[in-house]
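Researcher: We're teaching a course module on how sequence relates to structure. For the next exercise, students receive a sequence and then see the predicted structure as C-alpha cells, so they can try to spot secondary structure elements on their own. Here is the exercise chain.
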Amino acid sequence: MLTRRAFAGSLPLAGLAAAAAAPAIRSIEVFAVRYPVNGYFKFFTKPERQTAFVKVTCEDGTFGWGQSVPIPTWSYETLESVTTALRGYLAPTLIGKNPTDLAGAHAAMNKAIAPSFSTGMPIAKAGIDLALHDITGKLAGKNLAALWGRKPLSKVVLSWTVNTKSMAEAETVMADGRQRGYKHFNIKVAPDPKFDVELARTVRRFAPDSFLWADANGGYDTDTALTVIPRLKDAGVNVLEQPVPSNRLSGFAAAKRQGLLPIILDEGVVSITDLEEFHELGLLDGVAMKPARTAGLFDARQQVEYLEHNRLMFLGSGLTDPDVALAAAVVLYAAYGLKYPAALNGLQYLAGSFLRTPFQLEDGALRTPTGPGLGVEVDEEKVRKAAHD
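Model: And here is the predicted structure for the students to work with:
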C-alpha cells in the first residue's frame, strides 16, 4: 500500500539544489473575478461563476498564478470566505518562505487554518498551491509533468455534461455536445430515480460506445441508492459517483458490497488520509479527482499515485474550472495518463477567459499545456481590471 511516506515528493532529486536556492516569497495578491455562465447547471444559482486568482511573487520577480474556484452550493466555501482566508490567514504565513517547499507551505497553511474532519478550506488553499507549483516549474524551466518525471498525454479527452430538468432538454444538450466533437457523456442524477434511469437510457442510445458516468453528488439516501444502482447499470451506466452524502459511510460500504457498479467518491475524499482510510474500510472503487477539492496538486498527486498503486479507478473531474484551475487539472491528468474522459466542463458552461491564449476545444479534447509551470500565461492587466470593476 502506498502511503504519504512513500510519496515521491514535490521535486525529483535533480531539482533539490535549485529548490534550496529559490528566492523567497515577497507578496501574495488575490483578485476576485467573475465569468458569465451559459446554460443551466445545478450548482449555479447566479448567471456568473465566481473565482479568485492568486498571484505569488518572489523576491527576484519570478511569479506564479493560481486560482480558487468556490461553489457554495457544492461545498461550504464562498468567494468571500476564500478571499478573506487567502488575504488574512494563508498569505501572511507564507511571506518570506521558499516557494518550492510545497510540503512546508501546506503545513503552514494547515496550521493557519486547521482541519476539521479533513483539510480546512481546501478550495482557498488550492489557489496558493497552484501558484507555488507554477513558480516551481518556472524556476526549473520545465512544465510540471517534466518536473515530476512524467511523460504526459498530448491531449486530454473530455466528457460532455448532461444536466437537465426534462428529457426534451437532454436531447438538445446531447446534440450540442456531439456538434462540438464530444463522444463521451456524464449525467447528473438524484434525487429522482425514475428520471435518472430514463436519462441514462436516452444517453446510452444516443452514444452507444461512450463512457457513461453518472454523478449523484450525494443526492440519494442509502436505500434509494441500492435500489437504483442495478437499474442504472441495466441502462448502460459505467460508473456511479458519490451516490450518498459524504458522511454516510455505511451507505458507501453497502453500495460497494452490492458490486454492480464501480463506486466512485468525490466530495467525500479531500485529503490523502481520507482516501487511505476509506479504501481500508472498503467504501470505494476509485476517486473522481479534483485539484480544487484536494487543496491543489500536492495532495492530488499523492492520491493519484495511491490509486495507481492500489489498482483503483482514477477519474478526472473538476469544479467547472476556468483558465488556471483548468490548466492544473489538464496537466495533472495528462501527466498521469488518464484513461477515461475527464468531466471538465468549464468550456461547456463558462464564457470568457483571462488567459492570453485561451483553451480551445479540439474534437472533444484539450491540448495539454507544455510551457513552464502550469504552461499558461495569464493576462494580468485584464485580471486586475476585472477585479477592480
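Model: If you want an answer key for the exercise: Residues 163 and 174 are 10 Å apart (CA to CA). The longest strand covers residues 25-36.
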